[in-house]
Each structure stands twice: as C-alpha cells, then as structure tokens.
Amino acid sequence: MNPGTDIFEQYLELIASTPEIDDSLINNHIKQLKESEKYLPMGMTFLFITNSSNKKYEYITKNVEYCTHIKRDEIYSGGFDFIFSRIHPHDLDDWHEVTGAIIEEIIKLPLDKKQKCNFQFNYRIKNGYGDYINILEGQIPIAFNKDEIPYLFLSQVTVLGNEIETSPKGVLMLLNNEGEYEKFFEILPNPKAKNNFNLTKRELQILEVINKGLTSREVADNLHISKETVDKHRKNIIKKMGVNNTVAAINLLKNQNPD
After folding, report:
1. What does the angle CA 17 – CA 28 – CA 175 come to, to the nearest 5 degrees?
2. Mean pLDDT over all residues of the chain?
3. Which are the contacts of 163, defined by CB distance < 8 A and separation ≥ 6?
4. Which residues, in sequence order, are CB contacts of 251 under 8 Å at separation 6+?
5. 71, 47 Cβ separation under 8 angstroms
6. Do the beta carbons of residue 88 and residue 126 sit within 8 Å?
7. Across the strands, what pairs with 182?
8. Under a CB-based contact definition with an 8 Å cutoff, are residues 126 and 134 in contact?
9. Helix H segments across the chain?
10. Averaged over 107-133, what is the pLDDT?
11. How would residue 1 be classed by pLDDT, with cut points 50, 70 and 90?
C-alpha cells in the first residue's frame, strides 16, 4: 500500500471519532458561502466546505456543475468516495502521497500556525462528459477537534483545462506577519519512491537528505523532526533493506532505480 494512503487513512480514522462537531460553526460558514455565492461570477472556479469527520461536503457552490458538468447532488450523496472514484487512476497514489504528507506536516504545527495555513495540490478528475480535466485545489482549515486536528476546510477549486497533462504536487503555506503566504513545505512525488522494500515516504525523504552528506542532527533540522525520530527511521531502514548502514541502503536504492 502507498505510504501516503496510510497517513491519509489514519487521519480520516482519527477525525471520524471526533464527537464535538460544531453544527453552529458549520451552519455559519454555509450561510457565509451562500451569501458570497450571490456575487461569485460564473467561471471555472467553485467553492465548497469539506467535513473530513464524515467524509462529506457540507456545501458546494453551484459553479461546480458549470466547471465539471457533475451534478451537485451526486457529490453530496457520494462524498469523498465519489470524488476518489473520479480521480485519474495514474494520479490516485500520488494524490494520497501529497495529501498525506501535507496533513502530516499540518498536524505537527502549533495551533496558531495551523490557523494560518493554506495548502494547495493538483490532480486530474473525470468530468461529467467522461474527460479528465486538471484541477487545482486549495484548502484552509476552519475548525479543529480537541486534539487540534483540522476536520473542517474551506476549499476553492479551479479547473485548469485538459490541454496539458500535469503530475500531482502540493505546497503548504503559512500566513506571515505581513499578511502574505510563505511556502513552508512542498512535495513532488518521485517515481523512484516506488520501491521493493516497503519504505515509507518519510524514510525515503531521510535517505535523500542523508545522501547530501548531512548528519542525523542536520537531517532532523532539515525535515523539522527530532534527532531521535531520524535515528529510529535509520534503524527501520536498515532492518527493512537488510543492510548494515544507510550508505549501503542508498546504494541499493540507486542500483534498483538507475538513472
């Protein structure tokens, strides 16, 4: 299974047990979105409110039908699973890898930074005519559970057309003191990440940074994790790959995936 899928599914499991869904908050955001919809021009962008706790969309602006030729009622009734079923099969694993990595980074942030984050990712989805179109989706967390994990998002989707085939990638941005977004984290799935050793995305990231000649402390600083976590991952990598050290692990991966 794709490691990103594991992270994303674990996130959904955590959120599914959230008991304190704030209906008044959801209704307030829906009211605001309905009001803004009056002034939203008919174009290739639509807005919606995502509720990860029940894998549903609380509200979707009517532009979605103009942009995608998919009926709103189908999305409402089908929820996340309906959308997943329409993502291009070549993009699905990368979609999970991108969103899983971004969610992992968001969960590690303190609450004040979580409230200032905005993440974007792209993928291809099948429209109502059966054609795949490029999608750019941006999400802003607007509600958190007692563990400070976001479960409600205000989302904006722009249809980019289908003239150029794009590969999924994602970026996490944080609002600075000047009111501008700064890039905090970026992920572009690497085809070489497909390996025969069941290495996780984090383990592959660690090997990539180690290959630059950095120490465990420097790797930890680079990936915003503790040195103890890096050392634990190094031990897991060595065990999974049946080698004596991470240098041998890197060489083995290079031999498996020659340029």
Report:
1. 80
2. 85
3. none
4. none
5. no
6. yes
7. 174
8. no
9. 3-16, 23-37, 63-68, 72-86, 92-108, 111-114, 201-210, 216-223, 227-241, 246-256
10. 94
11. very low
Rounded to whole angstroms, the Cα distance separating 58 from 73 reads: 12
Tell me the pLDDT tens digit for each residue of 209-250. Answer: 898 889 999 998 888 888 998 999 999 999 888 888 998 888
Alpha carbons 121 and 155: distance in angstroms, whole number: 11
Q: Identity (one letter) of the amino acid at 121?
A: F
Query: How much is the pTM?
Result: 0.68
Query: For residue 207, which phi and psi values (nearest 5 degrees)?
Result: -60, -40
Give the pair of three-digit tokens for residue 100: 């899983």
User: One-letter amino acid identity for 18?
Assistant: T
Q: State how beta strands 150-161 and 181-187 pair.
A: unpaired
Q: What are phi and psi of 122, to 5 degrees?
A: -125, 155
Tokens read off for 194: 């497909």
The secondary element (H helix, E strand) that includes residue 154 is strand 150-161
User: Could you tell me if 90 and 191 are in contact, meaning their C-beta atoms sit under 8 angstroms apart?
Assistant: no
Output the CA torsion 220→223→224→230 (10° steps): -40
Contacts of range 82-90, beta carbons closer than 8 Å, 24 or more positions apart: 83/125, 86/125, 86/126, 87/123, 87/124, 87/125, 87/126, 88/123, 88/124, 88/125, 88/126, 88/132, 90/124
Q: What domains can be seen in the chain, in order of their start residue?
A: 3-187 (3.30.450.20), 191-256 (1.10.10.10)
Residues in the chain: 259
